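User: Please predict the structure of the protein below. I'd like the answer in structure-token form so I can feed it into my own downstream comparison script.

Assistant: Understood. Taking the following sequence of 181 residues as input:
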Amino acid sequence: MALPTLRGKLINLRGVRRSDAESMRRHADNADVARYMAILPYPYKLEHALKWINTTHRMARAKTDYHFGIEDKGTRQIIGMIGLSRVNRRDKNAEVGYWLGQDFWRKGHTSEAMRLMLNFAFGELDLARVYAVVHEKNTGSIRLLEKSGFVREGVWRKATFREGRFHDVFAYGLLRDEYTE
């Protein structure tokens, strides 16, 4: 499946191309961006971006995961990523994950990306539930999830090891019938 382009006011969500690799590297290569992201290596190199681009294409074709580049409408550059992982068609659920370049934090880009992604998940994919896991100290992500209607469903105690110690991870979920645009 080729990913559709999901259009917003500030950003578009679209499939990433090899030509996006340098922009992805520039925005992901930041310790503060990578701090709570288990999947995002730091330092983030061009080869990481190129490998990830290939992986996203393979997963979309297999219909197991759908990862979109967050394209800034002004510059047309990829400034982050948002995606659905572990899409379970039988149980109609998937995990949402995202990152955004630090220059764009607290400006509405991720909120819009989340809204577009949830519309895709509940509409195009006909999912019944979207969930997320977030590091206890990732207050920006916690705020985004709660603002988007997600409910904290539990705590995974000492589930991740960062900065020399174990940390809790919060589990969030959103049901289709709870979602309001």
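That's the full token string. The chain has a mean pLDDT of 96.
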